[in-house]
Write a structure and sequence with these properties.
The chain is mostly beta strands. The chain has 1 helix and 12 strands; from the N terminus they run αββββββββββββ.
């Protein structure tokens, strides 16, 4: 397990971006509060390296939300975001979980303020791998970005996929690891991110 985590960390340190889905599909208990750290390295549309901090809370059986801040040393100097995921069908028997996540983000890109809004329909399912439960997901985020300085807008579509899993046992039992990849479909970016989360 340590070798897998080390390999993922090396890959992410070379090419990672902020996640879109994050912990939204992980089956936390109601009222669970979680903090997450993600390491980011933007390689296109504004290069630079930085870090993202997130707060997640499950409000009830169907609804959870997350919010966070990211900073980098490149064209994307800062980023604030919020999201809310609503479950339509639960992960039950052979049926996968289906949800829709609403997204809102504001960031500074090359000196311009970009405000982005979107939705991300998501399918996820829990599986057992080598006696450890993991929750893979696939999503299709669709966003509209408004450039408030230039008065223009741009739509983007991407494919986001990844998984969440418990990192270990003993003192690491409560820690959750997440891996997410984002693939450009239209005016988006290709990305990979590694996150480590700890329930409060």
């Amino acid at each position: 397990m340590k070798k897998i985590i080390l390999a993922m960390a090396l890959v992410v340190s070379m090419s990672s971006f902020s996640s879109t889905i994050g912990l939204s599909t992980h089956p936390f208990s109601t009222n669970n509060r979680v903090v997450t750290t993600e390491f980011n390295s933007y390689l296109s549309n504004g290069t630079g390296m930085g870090i993202t901090a997130k707060y997640y809370q499950r409000l009830n059986r169907r609804l959870n939300f997350d919010a966070g801040i990211g900073i980098t040393d490149g064209d994307r100097s800062n980023r604030l975001f919020v999201g809310a995921d609503y479950e339509i069908f639960p992960d039950y028997g052979r049926q996968p979980r289906f949800s829709v996540k609403g997204l809102a983000e504001t960031l500074t890109f090359d000196g311009d303020r970009i405000n982005t809004f979107g939705v991300a329909p998501t399918i996820s399912k829990g599986f057992l791998f080598w006696n450890k439960e993991a929750f893979p997901f696939v999503s299709l985020p669709v966003k509209v970005g408004l450039n408030s300085d230039e008065g223009t807008y741009e739509t983007s579509t991407s494919l986001a996929t990844g998984f969440t899993t418990q990192l270990g046992s003993g003192s690491l039992r409560d820690m959750i690891g997440s891996v997410e990849a984002n693939f450009d479909l239209k005016d988006s970016y290709t990305a990979l991110v590694l996150g480590v989360s700890l329930p409060l």
